[in-house]
Amino acid sequence: MTGAAVAVGAGRGAGPGAPVGASGEVDPGVLGGGNLDASVAALQRHLRAQPRDAGGWATLGLAYDEQARTKGDPARYPQAEKALKRSLALAPGNDQALAGQAALAAARHDFTGALACADRALKRNPYSERALSSRIDALVELGRYGEASRAADTADARRPGVPVFTRYAYVRELRGDVKAARKVLTQALSGATAPGDVAYVTAQLGQLAWNQGDYKGALGYYARALAADDTYLPALEGRARAQAATGRRAEAIKGMETVVARYPLPAPLVVLGELYEARGAAGDRARAHDQYALVNAWIALARANGVDADLDTALAAADHGDKKAALRAARAEWSRRHTVHTADALAWALHVNGDDEQALPYARRSTATGYRNAAFLYHRGMIELATGHRKDGRASLAAALRLNPGFSPLGAAEARKALGAAK
Amino acid sequence: MRPRFRLPFVLLAVGGLALLPAGAASAHPLGNFTVNRYDGLVAAPGQLRVDHVEDLAEIPATQAKPDIARLGLGRWAEQRCRRAAEDSRLTVDGRPAALTVGSGRARPRPGQAGLDTLRVECRLTARLPRHASVAVRFRGGGAAGGPGWREITARGDRMTLTSTDVPGTSVSHELTSYPRDLLSSPADTATASLRVRPGGSALAQERQDAPGAAVLPRGADRWTRALDGLVSRHHLTLGFAALALLIALALGAAHALAPGHGKTLMAAAAAARGGRARLRDVLPLAASVTVTHTLGVVALGLLVTAGSAATPSVIAWLGIASGALVLAAGGSLVRRAWRHRGDGHGGDHGHGQHGHEHGPHTHTHSGVPHTHPAAPTLRGTILLGFAGGLVPSPSAVVVLVGAAALGQAWFGLLLVVAYGAGLALTLTAAGFAVVRLGSGLTRVLRRRPSWTAHPLASLARRGVPLVSALTVVVLGAGLVLKGAATALG
Prior knowledge:
The structure holds two protein chains of two kinds. By secondary structure, chain A is an all-alpha fold. Chain A has helices spanning 2-13, 36-49, 54-71, 76-90, 95-107, 111-124, 129-141, 145-158, 162-174, 178-191, 195-211, 215-228, 233-245, 249-262, 266-279, 284-304, 311-320, 323-336, 340-352, 356-366, 374-386, 390-403, 409-422.
C-alpha cells in the first residue's frame, strides 16, 4: 500500500508541460571548462528524455560532486550518490560511475571507501583521470605517504594534467620538498585554461608561498586567483591572512567578514575571531566571542547528525570552543586515519586538555615527514616546553616563527611569549 | 501458547526490518549554513508587490543572534528587509524604481541540535504606472551571497503577464518544502524580466500548503515537541534512552485519554462479552492495538518522508477501513448477543446457584445441548484491536520522522512502540475498568438477591450485551461516515 501510494503521489507531482528540449549527449569533458550550472541543466534535460543512459547518470553524479565542491553546498552529495547508484544499476561496474563514487567518498571523508572504489575503477580503466586522482587523495588522507608518492608517479606517467599535477605537488610538499612542489604547480598553471582551474592552481601556489612565509608572493598568486574567479573562497581567505601578516589588518578583517558572511565554516570563523582579538578595538572581544560560539554550533550540528566534528572543527574548538568535544573528535579522527594532520590535531587537543605527556609523541609524529608547517612546529614547541624539553621546545618555536610568523596572530604572540619565558 | 504469539512477533520484526537506517540527513534541507531567498512578484494596478522571504539555516540564524538580542526580533526583521530592498534592483520601463518596505517580520523555528532557524518575510512595494503596459526587470538582493536557494516567481493581480521568464508558482512553496527530485537542482534565479498589461483576473489569496502539512498537526503539540527536543539535544546514553521511552509511554497513555481513541469501543466490546470477560481476554486486544498502531505510524512516516502527496487521503481511507472493520466486529457481536439473548444466562453464571465450573461446559436448554464458549474468539479480539489501532496518531508520526531526520530512526521506532504500548495501556485499563465494574456489579447483585429478582434487573442483564454491541455498530458507522466525508469532501 505504501509503495502504491508513493507512486501515486509522485505521479501527481510531476506536472505536464515540462519543456521537452532537444536532448543531446553531454561530454564529461565539458564539465571541466565552461559553465558548470548550464552543463548540469543540460544533463538533467537529457536524462529526463533518456533515463537509461548510464554514462549520462555517471556524468551527472560527477557534476553534482563538482557543484558541491565549488559552491560549498553539501546538499548535493546525496543527489550525486543517487545518480551514481542509478548509473551502476544501469551499467554494472562502469568505470566512470566507480570513479565518481571514489571522488564522492573522498569528499565525504570516507577515504577507505574512496580507495576501494578507485581501485575498482582502475581495474576497469587504468587511465581514468578521476580514479587516479581520487586514489592519490585517499592514500594521502589515510597517511600512507609512500604509497601516495608511488601513486602520484603512476598517475603522472599515465594522465598528466592539472588534477594530477596539483596532487603530485601536494605529495612532494608533505615530504618537505617545497622546490619540487613549486615547479610542478607552475607547470600545472601553464597548462590551465579554464578559470576554475586557474583559480585552483594559483590558490595552491599562494598557499605554498604562505607556508614558507613569502607573503608578497602569496598575495600575488591570490590576486591572480581572484582575477580568474572573484568568489573563490580559499583565495579570499588566503588573501586576508596574507594581508594580516603584512600589517594590513583593516583590509584583512574586511575580507574575512565577507568570507564569513557567505561561508561561516569553522576555519574562517577562527581566523576572523583571532583577527578581532588581535585588533582589540572596542567591542572586538564580543565579536570574536560570537565567531567562536558558531564553532560550538557546528559541533552541536555534527552531533545531531550522529557524527563527530571533523578535523577543522576539532582544531577550532581546541583553541576557542568546547575542549572536551575537540579531544573526542580528534581521537575519533586519529582512530580512523594516521596522518600528520590528525596527529597534530590530537596532540594539540591533548595539550589544551592538560595531557602533555601523551601529546608529545603525536606532536613529534606530525613533523616527522619533513612537512614544513609553522602551526605544527608551534604546537610541537609548546608541548615540548610543557613537558620540560626546553632546548627542543625553543628550537621548534624559533623554527615556527622563522618559517611563517603570520601563521596565526594569536599563536605567534603566544610563541614569542613562551620563547621569552623559556630563555 | 506459541502459535498465538508468533504472529505479532513476526509482524513486529517485519515492521522493524522495513525501517532501513536513514543516511545523515540535516533538518534544514539545503545544508546548515545556507540562506535561501525567494521573491514573489505580484503586479497589481499601480503597484508592484514583492513578497521577499528569507530562510536562514541554523548557522546564519545563530550568527544573527547578537544583532537580534541587541535590536529585538521585530526591528531586526525590519532592518533585514530594508537591506534586502536596498540590495534589490528594480527597473520599470528602463528607469530605476525604488522599493519601499511595507512590513517585515521574522519567525524562529526549531531546527537541528536545539538551534533555531529563522524565516524572514518582507512585503516590499514599488509604484507602477497605471493604465499602461510596462516592462519590469527585477534583480534579487543578495545575489553574490553564499550557497542557497534563489527563486523568483511572478503573478498578476488584475493585471496580465504578457511575457515572463520566471514561473508563476513556487517550486518550494515559498521556501516551506524543497523538492528532492533526483533531476532537480536548487533554484538559482537571480533576475526576472516581465511585461505586464492592465486587466485580468484577481489573484486568489491562497497559500500553498506542503503535502504533509494537512496530515501532521501544525505546530505539533507541546509534549511531542518536547520529546523531539529531548531526542535531538542529548547523546543517546542508556539512562537517557530509558527515560525517553518512559516519556513516550506516558505520552501514549495520555494521548489515549483524549476522546476519540477507542476507549468507548473497548469498553463496549468488553461489556458485550458479558461479565465473563477477564484480563486475559483484554490483553490480546491491547497487543493488537500496539502492533497495528506502530505499523501504521511507520507506514505513514515512510509516506511523509517520501513526500508523497497521497498522505492526507491515505489517512482518510485508513479511517474508513477502520470504521468498516469496527462495523463488521460490531455486527458479529450483535449477532451473537441476539442469539444468546433468550438464554437467561445473560453472561452471568451465578456459581453458587447453578454449580457450574469455569471453562467450556455443555448444558441443555429446551433439550438442545450446546456450549457457551467461555472465552471470546481470539480472532475477534485481534480484529477489534486491529481496527482500534488502524488510524495512526499524527504526533507519533512526527516523533518518528523527526528521529529519522536526526539519523536515529531505530530509536524513533522504539519510541513509537512505547507510544503504542501507552495507548494500549489506557485502552486495556478502560476495558479492565468495565470488566471490574461488571463483576463488582455482579457481586453486589448476588448479595442482594431481591434486586436480581426484579424484572428490570433481568431485562438489563439480557439487554446490556445487545446494547453494547449496537453501540459498537453505531460507532463503526460513525467512523465510516467521518472518513468518507474527509476522503470524498
